[in-house]
# Entry
Amino acid sequence: MSAPSLNRPALPAFAVWLVVLAAAALVLLPIAARYAETPYYVVLVTRLLIFAVAATALNLVLGFGGMVSFGHSLFMGIGAYSVALCSYFGIGNGWAHLAFAIVVSAFAAMATGAVALRTRGVAFIMITLAFAQMFYFLVISLKEFGGDDGLPISMGSRFGFVDLKNPTTLYYTTFGVLALLIYGSYRLYHARFGLVLRGCMINEDRMRALGFPTTTYKLVAYVLSGCVAGISGLLLANLTMFASPSYASWTVSGDLMIMVVLGGTGTVMGPAFGAFAFLLIEDLLKRFTDHWIGGVGVMIVLIGLLARRGLWGSLPGRPR
Amino acid sequence: ADLKIGFLATLSGSIGAMGQDQYDGFMLGLEQMGGKLGGKTIEVVKEDDQFKPDVGVQVAQKLISEDKVPIITGVSYSNVMMAINKKITDAGVFLIGSASGPSPMAGAACSPLFFSTSWQNDQMSEAVGKYATEKGYKKIFAMGPNFQGWKDALAGFRRYYKEPFVKELHTPLNQMDLSAEMAQIALAKPDAVFAHYAGGLGVNFIKQYRQAGLLGKIPLIVVATVDGLTLPALNETALGVMTAQVWAPDTDNAANKAFVEAFEKKYGRIPSNFAAQAYDSAKLLDVAIGQVKGDLSNKEAFAAALKNAKFESVRGKFAFNNNNFPIENFNLLEVGKDAKGRVSMVTKGVLLVDQKDAYHQECPMK
Amino acid sequence: MLLAVDRVESSYDATQVLFGVSIGVAAGDFVTLLGRNGMGRSTLINTIMGFIKPRAGTILFDGKPIQARPCHEVARYGIGLVPEGRRVFPTLTVYENLIAFQRGERNRAAAWTVDRVYKLFPRLKERKGQLAATLSGGEQQMLAIARALVTNPRLLILDEATEGLAPLVSEEIWSSLRELRREGLSIIVTDKNLKPLLDLASRHYVLSKGRVVWEGTSEEFNGRQDELKAYLGV
Amino acid sequence: MLGSLFIIQTLNGIQFGVMLFLLAAGLTLVFGIMNFVNMMHGALYMTGAYVAATLYNKTGLFVMSLLLVVPITVAIGAVLERFVFKHLYDRDHLDQVLCTYGFILIFNEMARSFWGPSPYFMGMPDALSDTYEVLGVGYPVYRLVIVAAGLLAAIGAYVLIHQTRFGMLIRAGASDRAMVAGLGVNINLLNTMIFGLGAGLAGLAGALAAPILSVEPGMGETVLILTVVVIVIGGIGSVRGAFYAALIVGLVDTIGRSMLPFVFESFLSSSLAGAAGPAVASMIIYLLMALVLAFRPNGLFPVRGR
Amino acid sequence: MNGVNPALSTRGLVKRFSGVLASDNVDFDLLPGEVHAIIGPNGAGKTTFIKQITGEHFPTAGRITLGDTDITRMRTDRRILLGLGRSFQVTSVLRDLTVLENVILAVQAKSGHSFKFWHRAVEASELREPALATLADVGLRAKADLPSRVLAYGELRQLEMAMVIASNPQVLLLDEPMAGMGTVESRLMVELLQSFRGRFSTILVEHDMDAVFALADRISVLVYGRIIATGSPAEIRENPQVRASYLGEAA
Ligand SMILES: Nc1ncnc2c1ncn2[C@@H]1O[C@H](COP(=O)(O)OP(=O)(O)OP(=O)(O)O)[C@@H](O)[C@H]1O
Ligand SMILES: Nc1ncnc2c1ncn2[C@@H]1O[C@H](COP(=O)(O)OP(=O)(O)OP(=O)(O)O)[C@@H](O)[C@H]1O
Ligand SMILES: [Mg+2]
Ligand SMILES: [Mg+2]
# Structure
């Protein structure tokens, strides 16, 4: 009898190549953009990368844990306002921004998660949505901090000599965060915690019967995911030098969900690809018709109906 | 084309009506001048910000560095305006707003490259505040949705109205049904009600005010609540509502008569003030570009040309203040019937003459 | 033949489970499907019912082809099912589980009505207002049988007829099935207790790996016990 | 004055609750009974409003316009169910969310294309736009019509679900669709009918709301979230729960909104009260929901047996 | 009790549902290492009894002790950590995970906390070794790396058992483990349970009398929520009351 293998899911060779190529292209892009004098593309791709971070964060709960959160824009909003509020009070230290974003995101995730995770299925989806809306309307009513007009940011996040104000720095920082996040979620997927999380997704009752306090695990995942989404909000704030309640609007949550599904729910690489694909398609549609929102709608319906494994998951060999 | 101009506004979704009116007004102006401004053929690059500031920043960036436009115009809502204005002017691109005028941009954050052909957001409520004082109302019931615009409006109103309010309400922004508030008004029996509900909220408000039997009984003074965009949805329901504006379809001058006629002919509807302001921005650009003969490389020269441009505004007299916001008159308007018997805004008099906004002194430009 | 299954092939997604299965049930027949776990008995039953569409083959009920008909039509032709795993409706009471599906009672003198099944299972009458979710396993099995009966079928199919029933109750079930057969009902049964099946049934089909490997009467079965042991693991 | 305000607000709360119930009843059927996440319920509400407004503007017949909305939205719902949503029942919630979310965008865009981006006009006949004197305050007659219509719908829905065989079949289908079919019931038709029913109720709610609210693209979204809160509080899938929860939410929201400022003023400085009041008011129903869930995770009246 | 501490015991256990007394003053002792079968008519309250031990229902009155601990109102997952193991019907293995991962989860559950975010669970020898050993116990070692959804019915039941025993419970609760099994599979299961003899204290609820008589050290008979008899298999088989109310000809 051969000893059971270590169960390392092999990434198909071409998938490895695809990732390497994509990474290489992303690394080279700012340099190419400088030569071609098209700085716009750096800004454009930074935004794509930021949403890729957020989508990957959402995937931690949605793809690994089966928690269909329709309120992840909440954390993007919190991340963005962390920067804006710090800047408002004259704090330009990036570490302070980061700490603030993470602490507040974690706290919000803990509070909302504790309530939302008492429910399942439809109720969970809707409660997360409701909480995000609550935050949205709260921010809108805060006159002091710009209300619905939003809050311009005068001091971006400065981490020592790394100043996110510089578009190229921001670009590479975001890229680094994404790369780290993807590797991290790959590790998490196979680690004990990830295994428990996946178990909860498949059959929570069974996991409880095995002796796992499942709600605790799900809550930790939710908090983790919220913090990462908070970081994506911080990056977005640095990109636009502006924080707006609309970062937390429910359509953003919807978009994030679409990105995850389009890329491949529960895969490690998928959500990032999904984010790129979705935003680029949206951009493309916009060029063709004024009714592009309807076009996006049709696309989403088709994704819901057809894309069972998503772009990444549909590649031959079903890479993770 | 000799020159590219970026048109950036909120065009999609249910909130896109204002951007569409701005676009139509601007394009009408351009068309009337044969597709040329200042003698130069113009290519308009239209971009939609989707009412999202982050998208606004992105498309602004695209206009600046991809299309390399020297001028961006339009911009519908304050939240997008606040997000993009610095990006644009810092890049040395001129920004001509035709709708939104948030207070920081009139004050400390003013810029030599930014011009407005509309007004600063508080000013309409200043005008109606003056009206309330003139009418001698002692008990005013004030209500609006709990957001920035309403708080600015209150501040503006307060500058010209000193009596205490009998009640000041801030309703949640997502609250559609206002019956509870109508009951409070009925019980409070104020001299008048001052309200600020924009867009669809305004339609809700007016309909419910009418149905509660209050319209006609308690005078209603509003800002932003009825305008050319929402009036078709209200129709006769809104008859008798009082408001203030720099422009109305019946504003009495030749330029305006021509504009309204052409607009109705082309688009089959009465233009809103947003269309009129955007039309003015086309006129403004025409004169200024002509002045510098299409050469925008000298920013100071072009800024001066804009600032001193003499053009026939549809609102009548027009001049820029030190902060590049207009100095203009605010008229009292009532929802009534126009000459053709349609429900429209009817001018009832002038409230403020050559009004300057409250923030211009904070602007370092002199 | 009331039911004629002819060379039916069925599969779940890509995996084929039935390979050319043919069986026949005449009016008044009592037929068993025998075989070890996973040999395809439930799949055959699901195919007859129309839950699964066969890839090939025909199924005639009363001479009419039913293999392409939707499930509810098949049931309406007169096939009553007691499914594997009971599948009672948990949010309905016992009474609602029955009354909602009672039909055809006007066409026959000795028809099954809710009252009549209560006589068969007095336990259900005691529990008639209780939600099916809270019934014990055996009570649910009784309800599943009763629910199939009140549709007044011509062919009754019981998949795992006595699963979870106490020995005494199982005996009652067998004697009621004998009774039903006497009334002219045709019956298909799977069950793990061979002895009562051999006593009751007129015909047996032994399935192995999705094929009918043997068919015959109880006498024939008893005559070849040793050989069939391999298939049944008795 | 506080006393009569309280009574009027109670009336307003009931009216608001009844309106919410019309929406919640349809949605709870689809959520709970079909276990289908229908995000586009609000879009059907919007459709109802637009159709009613268009019919009334064209014909001038008010009651007929409102009533005609029901068959039209039922048909729209049924068609969508037949051709699209049917394929999603056995899929996970995520796919359902996406598909129906996509339809929100499509419906909004269609409304924008047909009726323009600005709000659309809907008036009402003079007879209904009168007010009725209650404690010295004019109470709109039309609001009483809404209360009556909503109560009728509530009674109808309750009888349908709990007293009829159709209702039993619907509830049975919620737990095991295939088995219902296996017992001879055309489950596809049943599903189409439930979905149609839900759509019809949403359409009716939209039609009733059209004369009071602004008819515009996207009007369904805010209402959707509120409706969902009602359903979650009431217990998903329970029509009875939806009814009580709708009334509770309606009353708490309305009375809370108008009474909170008085409460705050009594122990806070007036400027602080002015700031805290609206902020709390906008969150009050979410707080209510969190409170309910903290004690009863399945809502106040969960469907038993699941 | 001959001085032996029972592994699990209940005293005066009462469970009342509206109108039904599902447990009526049940005093029950499970001795260390024994297989104690509970039989009785349908609806007698066997499952209800098990559910009170697992914590799915709380008793109306009475006490449950596991070893020395009172667990009457304890949460389910805490009970599991204290050494309670329970079998489920087949559908409850985690179908998208591999066989090994399923068992590893069971080991992990017992090992305390799983807040480890970095190292592969399947490579951790403190999880892997016991999991593989358990798989060998139930005869599934060779299939460790297959996704569990491809297993045959009988194998799924083996996996289910592996998950239950992987956490090395002191008390094993088996509610109708033979349900839905054919003759062969039932016999294999009996053999498997035989091989565990003495390792766990087991409560077995089953209507398959062949299995019960083959496995049980003692049998209790539950009728209308009450234990009417407890004794060796031989005693129970001869008990006239039990024959009349439950066994019928089967004896
Ligand atoms: N839903 C399904 N998807 C995929 N394969 C299935 C499904 N249901 C059954 N199978 C497979 O089909 C084969 C036949 O199963 P079936 O349920 O028909 O067997 P059976 O003879 O009824 O046995 P049992 O005693 O287990 O009920 C088995 O190998 C089983 O694994
Ligand atoms: N929630 C409840 N409400 C009302 N009655 C209940 C409830 N749960 C169980 N019962 C009743 O309690 C009795 C005992 O049920 P239990 O499931 O314990 O029986 P059991 O001994 O396991 O029977 P079986 O061998 O048929 O599985 C049954 O009559 C059942 O109908
Ligand atoms: Mg079977
Ligand atoms: Mg039981």
Notes: Residues 1-9 of chain A have pLDDT under 50 and may be disordered. The beta strands of chain A are 151-152, 158-159, 162-163, 242-243. The radius of gyration of chain A is 20 Å. Residues 48-247 of chain A form one domain.
